[in-house]
Amino acid sequence: MDWMAFLDAIPKDIPRDRLLALDTKHQLTRSTNRLIQMQWFPLVIQADVREVAPSIDEFLMHVGRRWLVRAVYEALLAKNEFWRELAATTFEKAKAGYHPVTRDSIAELLAPPKQP
């Protein structure tokens, strides 16, 4: 099965219980494939599945490629205060290991909006 196509086809508003069932069956949160995690984590963030927060933290701590982490940070920042706090605290821990382009891009995402 092409996991990337499968994950891409999951509706953004899929119910939390359906995501948990998928995760139980296919162990997507624990996948060692970073491409799968890159697509899976925004789905569970959108559904507010807070149990996966430690796995998201681990992913962001150990993956420094901007194209892999940016969508996850964007999902974190778009959800609610719990996830925004995870984005900020994880970035503070992880930024020293990020490529400078990644570090600067994510810092820009996390920066408060500029006032006109």
Please specify the SSE layout and strand pairing.
Elements: H1 3-9, H2 16-26, H3 34-46, H4 53-62, H5 66-79, H6 81-94, H7 100-110
Helix pairs in contact: 1-3, 3-5, 4-6, 5-6, 5-7
What is the ordering of alpha helices and beta strands?
HHHHHHH
Poorly predicted regions are none
Strand content: under 5%
From the N-terminal CA to the C-terminal CA, the straight-line distance is 49 Å
Give the integer mean of the pLDDT values. Answer: 93
Number of helices: 7
Shape: globular
Largest sheet: none
Question: How much is the radius of gyration in Å?
Answer: 14 Å
Pairing-aware structural class of the strands and helices?
Answer: mainly alpha
Question: Helicity range of the residues?
Answer: 55-70%
Quantity of strands, as a count: 0
Structure commentary:
The protein has 116 residues and is an all-alpha fold. It contains seven helices and no strands. It has helices spanning 3-9, 16-26, 34-46, 53-62, 66-79, 81-94, 100-110. Helix 1 (3-9) runs parallel beside helix 3 (34-46), helix 3 runs parallel beside helix 5 (66-79) and helix 5 (66-79) packs parallel to helix 7 (100-110). The N and C termini lie far apart (49 Å).
